[in-house]
């Protein structure tokens, strides 16, 4: 037992009080974990576009005050009743989606969309009692994605925590708890390119570059990056991208450009922007007979796209994926091992580092589109 187990812990957190306004670093009280919950000391956290999107409160119900953050790594401080698979001192990755182990999705080898713990952006409290574990002067502060890692301590459902190799550097593997695993898994688990094949990646942000990294690991011989921002092309070479297409430089649809480049289409494509036109292009640019397109980017929930049924009948496959089809607790330890075995290269995704006191600068970097991942050290 830790010497703080069962006690309320006062600590610093970056609280978002209103949309688009700088986070305020202030003292919060973090209550002890309840049944099936774990309190975690966050060591490092990162900023993901999902944090930015909900901080800006664009296109969804705004919930404030709130503690954002969901890409992180930490150490278990204490565990609640019923938690048997984690103990004090374990190194963990909190994940925005979970694995209860009991539902139909968890029992299926084909799904990672846990009924109990799948992502819920509107839920701002804990599942067990519908209450927050964060407060300031007795007033509750809302949770975010069940993780809220912009706090020195947080409380997470045990099914959303991945126990990892204690030798793995937490300041590197923290980025595996969201975007990087999403892109990597989209390629390795869903597109499954064969060695020597051709892969098109739509969108060369962090998720798209992780998809490219997956194609590199799989041994693809041609990795074609598609992006409207030519400044991204040079950086993308580090991730195995061999050729680049800027749709703005062509008078014909980009799927036609790619088909002409590849004698009929690529073997696999991965779409990482959430743009409807890019989704159609990603599907229509794969080769008939065997081509597979995978959609990763999240569009507006009411968005619709159109393609001709003949494209499917000509034996092209269209697939979607959530979190790269990784079951968090079951599969992420093996992704950490890929990094430890030098198969997966994580360092090149990390472009900035900041102390917790300068977390608002990380938001500035992301708003300006500077860099890929910014690691925030909670102890600096």
Automatic annotation (TrEMBL):
It comes from the Eukaryota. The keyword Oxidoreductase applies. Keywords: Cytoplasm, Metal-binding, NAD, Oxidoreductase, Zinc. It is found in: Cytoplasm. Residues 206-336 form the Alcohol dehydrogenase-like C-terminal domain. Residues 36-164 form the Alcohol dehydrogenase-like N-terminal domain. Its cofactor is Zn(2+). InterPro entries: ADH-like_C, ADH-like_N, ADH_Zn_CS, GroES-like_sf, NAD(P)-bd_dom_sf. The keyword Lyase does not apply. Pfam families: ADH_N, ADH_zinc_N. Its EC number is 1.1.1.1. SUPFAM superfamilies: GroES-like, NAD(P)-binding Rossmann-fold domains. GO terms for cellular component: cytoplasm. GO terms for molecular function: alcohol dehydrogenase (NAD+) activity; metal ion binding. Belongs to the zinc-containing alcohol dehydrogenase family. This is alcohol dehydrogenase. The lineage of its organism: Eukaryota, Viridiplantae, Streptophyta, Embryophyta, Tracheophyta.
């Amino acid at each position: 037992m830790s010497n703080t187990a069962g006690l309320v812990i006062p600590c610093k957190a970056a609280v978002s009080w209103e949309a688009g306004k700088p986070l305020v670093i202030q003292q919060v009280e973090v209550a002890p974990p309840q049944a099936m919950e774990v309190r975690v000391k966050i060591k490092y956290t990162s900023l993901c576009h999902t944090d930015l999107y909900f901080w800006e409160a664009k296109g969804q119900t705004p919930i404030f005050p709130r503690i954002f953050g969901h890409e992180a790594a930490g150490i278990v401080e204490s565990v609640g009743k019923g938690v048997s698979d984690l103990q004090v001192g374990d190194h963990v990755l909190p994940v925005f989606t979970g694995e209860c182990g009991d539902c139909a999705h968890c029992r299926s080898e084909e799904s990672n969309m846990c009924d109990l713990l799948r992502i819920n952006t509107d839920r701002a409290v804990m599942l067990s009692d519908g209450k927050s574990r964060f407060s300031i002067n007795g007033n509750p502060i809302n949770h975010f994605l069940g993780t809220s890692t912009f706090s020195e301590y947080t409380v997470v459902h045990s099914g959303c925590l991945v126990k990892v190799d204690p030798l793995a550097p937490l300041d590197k593997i923290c980025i595996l708890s969201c975007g990087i695993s999403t892109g990597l898994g989209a390629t390795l688990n869903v597109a499954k390119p064969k060695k020597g094949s051709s892969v098109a990646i739509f969108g060369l942000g962090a998720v798209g570059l992780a998809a490219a990294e997956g194609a590199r690991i799989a041994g693809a011989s041609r990795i074609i990056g598609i992006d409207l921002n030519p400044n991204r092309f040079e950086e993308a070479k580090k991730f195995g991208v061999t050729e680049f297409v800027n749709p703005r430089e062509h008078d014909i649809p980009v799927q036609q450009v790619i088909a002409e480049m590849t004698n009929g289409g690529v073997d696999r494509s991965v779409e990482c922007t959430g743009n409807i036109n890019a989704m159609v292009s990603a599907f229509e640019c794969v080769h008939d007979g065997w081509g597979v397109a995978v959609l990763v980017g999240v569009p507006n929930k009411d968005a619709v796209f159109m393609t001709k049924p003949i494209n499917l009948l000509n034996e092209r496959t269209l697939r979607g994926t959530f979190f790269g089809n990784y079951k968090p607790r079951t599969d992420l330890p093996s992704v950490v091992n890929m990094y430890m075995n030098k198969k997966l290269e994580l360092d090149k995704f990390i472009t900035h580092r900041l102390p917790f006191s300068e977390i608002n600068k990380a938001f500035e970097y992301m708003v300006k589109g500077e860099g890929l991942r910014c690691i925030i050290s909670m102890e600096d």
